[in-house]
Amino acid sequence: MSVTRRRLLAGTGAVGAGIAFAGAVEELFAGDAAAASVSGREGYGPLVPDPDGLLDLPRGFRYAVLSREGEPLRSGEGAVPGACDGMAAFPGRKGRTWLVRNHENRPDAAHRVPPVEGITYDPGAPGGCTALEVGPGGRVHTERVAIAGTAVNCAGGPTPWNTWLTCEENEDKAGTGDYTKDHGFVFEVDPYRQDRTVPEPLTAMGRFQHEAVAVDPRDGTVYETEDAFEEPFGLFYRFLPRRPRGGFGSLRAGGRLEAMRVPGVRDLSVVQEPGTVIEGVEWKRVPDPLAKETAIRFQDFGRGGVTHAQKLEGCYWGGDRVYFVTSYARRDEGSGADHYGQVWSYEPRGRRLTLVIVFGPGTDVQKPGESPDNICLAPSGGLMVCEDGGGAQHVYGVTRRREVYPVARNRQNIGTEDEPEWGEFAGVTFSGRRTMYVNVYEPGTTFAITGPWR
Q1: How far is the C-alpha of 419 from the C-alpha of 391, rounded, in Å?
Q2: How far apart are alpha carbons 449 and 329 in whole angstroms?
Q3: If you average pLDDT over every residue of the chain, what do you get?
Q4: Correct CATH for 9-450 of 2.70.180.20, 3.40.630.10, 3.30.300.130, 2.120.10.30
Q5: pTM greater than 0.85
Q6: How crowded is the C-beta side of 337, counted as CA atoms within 13 Å?
Q7: What is the mean pLDDT of residues 9-33?
């Protein structure tokens, strides 16, 4: 497939789901000037500077601040935690929406997730999730701790039975700092009832530096990404549950964890051509999912080994396939080649892997770095992409008609006047077709964005 640097090619896909794109889309990360010029027919026009200095949006859109780090939780359990990361929306009663929001807190966090009796895994760990019940007008009716005592809760994913799988991007063992238990696990959270959540790790799903998960609604297979910070880099996993029909608590019954092997490819970064299709993907059983002695990515998988990738991040299910993100790859850090972001799709029924998007590089206005991070399908089709790199930070849309357009820009400077810095976006998710919810990581803020969505 021949692709120019300034073109985005639409690939195959189903209506409203399973959309694939192939092509170089450096426009996504080219800074403010490009953001104003790529609005296109399916965009919403240039971003209008926010007089309050929080969030720039297209004309006709508005935001509501639902929750902000350091303010009191409405439950009275303490302060709103910081490091707002992955998030999902679940349907509630009377037109309301439940949001479950991760907090990627490390030991030095200024605002940790308050420990709550009955739902705290490790009192020495500052991470976890909070849950918000939001009405149609943006009014927050409930805000409480959903799980506490976990570590570095980065992303995760929703299940078909309306629970949230929160993932620890951490593999420290008990005795590290204040930790009293091993970390590096997935936990299941009930967004509706605090008393149903069990602070029990889903150990069969592996102990590693988790990032995100996505569930195949047809057979319950859970796909998992690993964001390991040093080589050998992370793996892409699938978990085959013993109770594939699902339901709250079903994953505690265990199952088999496997890692992906792409024939002839030890490192995904070496695949550079958008639209590349690789047939015959294999899955190899993980020898020790609990990583008692050796981290999984270092374990012996036998002949041929498994396939690694730097910065495996977002993961979601669409149509008949799972999509996953590699934010960047750098040869000088150990990757086989350089890139500024990729989105892959895997079709289980054909065991087929496709490189569907390649990002960047951007201009010198936008420093190369972590490019796509959290990503989701928009209700009308296409992608919403949270930017996580240097310079200005945006949420961008990518349409089926090959257009890239800005949706939001963070205006909150967390650096200095001489060296400004803007917090990344995370946790983009929709409630129906009317409201997009998104987090700013620092200062931890959750927004509801409404307007003339198409």
Answers
A1: 10
A2: 32
A3: 87
A4: 2.120.10.30
A5: yes
A6: 14
A7: 31
How many whole angstroms separate alpha carbon 396 and alpha carbon 32? 12
Is the predicted pLDDT of residue 9 greater than 80, yes or no?
Answer: no
Residue 112: is its pLDDT beyond 90? Answer: yes
* DSSP letters for 244-283: TT--TTGGGG-EEEEEEEBTTBSBGGG--STT-EE---EE
> pLDDT band at 23, cuts 50/70/90?
very low
Q: Among 191, 75, 188, which residue's Cα sits nearest to residue 121?
A: 188
3-state secondary structure of 33: helix
Write 392-397 long-range contacts (CB < 8 A, 24+).
392/31, 392/32, 392/35, 392/366, 392/422, 393/422, 393/423, 393/424, 393/425, 394/35, 394/425, 395/425, 395/428, 395/438, 396/28, 396/35, 397/42, 397/43
Residue indicated by tokens 């880099």: 233
Q: Tell which residue, 114, 40, 124, 106, has the closest CA to residue 75.
A: 114
Cβ(348)–Cβ(321) below 8 Å: yes
| Strands in 108-150 per DSSP E | 127-134, 140-150
Q: Judge whether 197 and 189 are in contact, CB under 8 Å.
A: yes
CA angle 308, 314, 320 (to 5 degrees): 90
**With helix as H, strand as E and coil as C, how does 341-370 read?**
CEEEEEECCCCEEEEEEECCCCCCCCCCCC
Instruction: Report which of residues 123 and 38 the model is more confident about.
Output: 123
Q: What is the pLDDT of residue 341?
A: 85
Report yes or no: 298 and 197 within 8 Å, Cβ to Cβ.
Answer: no
Percentage of the residues of the chain whose pLDDT score is greater than 70? 86
**Per the structure block, which two tokens stand in for 163?**
């629970």
Report pLDDT digits (tens) over 175-217: 999 999 999 999 999 999 999 999 999 999 999 999 999 999 9
- Report CA 347 to chain centroid distance, whole Å: 20
CB atoms near residue 420 (< 10 Å)? 11
